[in-house]
Amino acid sequence: MSFEPASTPAAPPLATPPPLAAAPAASVKSASGNRYALWALGAVAAAGLLGSALLWQRLNTIQEQLARQTADSGTQAIEARTLAHQALDVSRETAARLTVNETRVSEVALQRAQLEDLMQSLSRSRDENLVVDIESGIRLAQQQAQLTGSLEPLVAALKSANQRIERAAQPRLAPLSRAIGRDLERIGAAQVTDTAGLLARLDDLVRQVDELPLQNAVAQAAATRRMNAQVPAGDAAAPPAAPSPWWQSALQRAWEVVRDEARGLLRVSRIDRPEAILVSPDQAFFLRENLKLKLMNARLGVLARQLDSARADLAAASAALNRYFDPASRRTQMAATVLQQAQSHIRTAELPPLDETLSALATAAAGR
User: Rounded to whole angstroms, what are the CA distances from 307 to 98, 149, 193, 288, 335?
Assistant: First the structure.
């Protein structure tokens, strides 16, 4: 702070000298005014010096405070930088630990899932084994039924499977039990031919082919009909007649033979199929063998479940029987009846499917 010196008061203008009595009083007043001015100037200077000293002291204090604050700020900045580095290290370590923990958590979750799968597999192994056993048993019964043509293996397998399901008492197998019940009802209402009986009838028919009379052997057929008609059915209950002498019986048989031969010399009949009359003995042998082969092929078709082929062979055998063999013969009529019955039985030899049971088995095996 600067102080300017007080200005010297200007000299009064020259005036006419006062009177002699007033001169001392004026000089005294002038001296006292100068003294007061000097005291006031000194007081102002002292006050300015004191204010400057206080202001300088305060500036020094502020500078010291600023220096201390600057030093504290630098220290705090260093500490903050150190703490930041430490926090960065801690964050990196925490991130590494978090990664390790996440890996362990994933491993634990995987092990838990594996344990749950193992527990479920252990708990369901019994039911799955039961389902697999039932399916294998039913499929084996289907194969047996197809080979034998009988429904007994299927019925036995389905009843056994139903009993095993009831003993297991598992709610998830209830749809399978209902499906088995419906298939049992369908099998019970189905009609299937007894394949064993059909094969036995075909075998008997094959053995009888050699004894069937042809249409060109009408003389032998007529003799056979005459011998069969000698004893009527009403005479069977009559009392036996007295035996005739041997020479009379021999003469009677000889006369009948001569009469039959004489009647066979000339014969008038209607011929609808000339090829049946023109069959030679050699051709008759091959005709019988061909008929046997057709019957054997039909038998093999029934065994192999080739029903269409078996029906075709039986139809061909029936046509050959009606064309080349004597329709008036009882053996031919019986053979034709057997062939018709075999054809009708083969038409109903289809096995009922087990679609509902197999579908329920697939659903139970899938665990749904």
Answer: 74, 11, 12, 23, 20
